[in-house]
Amino acid sequence: MREECVSFHNAHPETPRSDWRVGDVRGVLEVALPIDRQTEQAGEMLRSTFALLAGVIALALVAVGITTRSLRRHADEKYRLESQLTEALTHALSGFIPICAWCRKVRKDESESDWIQIESYIGQRTEAQFSHGICPECAREQSRLRG
User: Residue 36 above 90 pLDDT?
Assistant: First the structure.
């Protein structure tokens, strides 16, 4: 306490004592707790948390990379298969097909003697299958011809 405060506190009616002197401390409570251990523990917990977070982020990035690579590989395979299918369908029945105007047989190759039914020709070059019936117009014509 300073000198001017000593006389005031010693004369005050609610003072807990009346023998204050210069240098005395009034109303101060000093508590000393070492926080070095708590600071060290908090730092260690923080480092552990950051290490865990870094591990989780690394795993997530690896998972994203694997997924992206897999999706890209599947997309490339899909594109390759679609291209093959398009090419196969284009070449299965493309260009001029030599067909007889009367019997509808198809010339199998360049030789003039090898003619096959159109159903066989298409069946050999595609996965198409045929069923046979007779249309109403042909049925009437056959009926007329027979009699």
Answer: no
